[in-house]
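input
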Amino acid sequence: MDSHGAPPSGNLDGREGGLDAAAAVLQALREYGTSEAATRRSSRDSMGMGETDLLALRYLLRAEASGERVGPKDLSRVLGITTASTTSLIDRLVASGNVRREPHPTDRRSLVIVPTVATDSDVRAALGQMHRRMMDVAESMSADEARVVISFLRRMGSAMRDEHRPHGAPSGKAGSAGASS
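output
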C-alpha cells in the first residue's frame, strides 16, 4: 500500500487477478458504506435512539449553530416523514430531554424545536471521535485529490438519485441539502 492507502501498481485491489479500476472503486465505496453504517448503528445504540431521531438531532444542532429556527414542518421536509410521524418524533425527543418546544419569537402561532445543551454534548461525545478521524483523512488529501473525490461523490449521488426518479423526469441537483454531516 502507498501512503494514500492504494495498493502497489498493477492490479487495483492487491489480489491475484485483481479488479479493474471501476470495480475496485465500487468495492471501496461499498466497504466505506458498510463501515459507515456500522459506526452509525453503534452511535445510535450508545445514545439509545433510532436513525431518524439521530438525524433529526444532527439537523437541529446544525440549524441552531447557524442561527436557523426549525419548526415541525421543516423537520418533516428534511427527514422526508409525515407530519404525524414528526409529531411522534418530537414527542419522543422532548420526553427524552433532547429537545424543547419553544414559541416562535416572531410568530406566536408557531413553535420552534430547540436541542438542549445536554443533547449537543451527547451527540458530540457519540459522533465526535468518528468525525475527527474522518476529518483527519479528508484533511490529508491534496486540493486536487479533494476535487476528484468531491466530483466523484456528487456524480455517484446523482446517479443514485436518478435510479429512483421516474423515467424522463429531470435529474436532481448534485449537492442536495439534507440531514447529513
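quick obs: The first strand starts at residue 99 and ends at 103.
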